[in-house]
Amino acid sequence: MCLRSRARPTLPGPGREEWRRRYPLFPRLLFVLDGTGPVAIENRISALRAAAGELKLFGFLHEVPVLAAPLTDRLQHGPSAPVWRPVQNPGSRVSWNQPRYG
């Protein structure tokens, strides 16, 4: 009986993820929040930020736009309106397609 080892699939580059072949940047993460009032929306955004901090994702938050918006704001003003709140700076409001968030 001859046991052969299976060849491992090769990575497209040293330690490079497959998705980076098509996307040079990680896409934005958009959270649409619904079913609650303005205070709870702020609490949910704060919870997203706290969860990212606990998972040591603050570096990730600087490279990948993570935005949250209440569904009511999106419906009233449109998805491209500056109703999106960056999780790393929830006091500001931006458009989801804005190149950089502060």
TrEMBL record:
Q: Where is this region: Disordered?
A: 78-102
Q: Where is the composition biased (Polar residues)?
A: 89-102
Q: What is this protein called?
A: Uncharacterized protein
Q: Which organism is it from?
A: Streptomyces canus
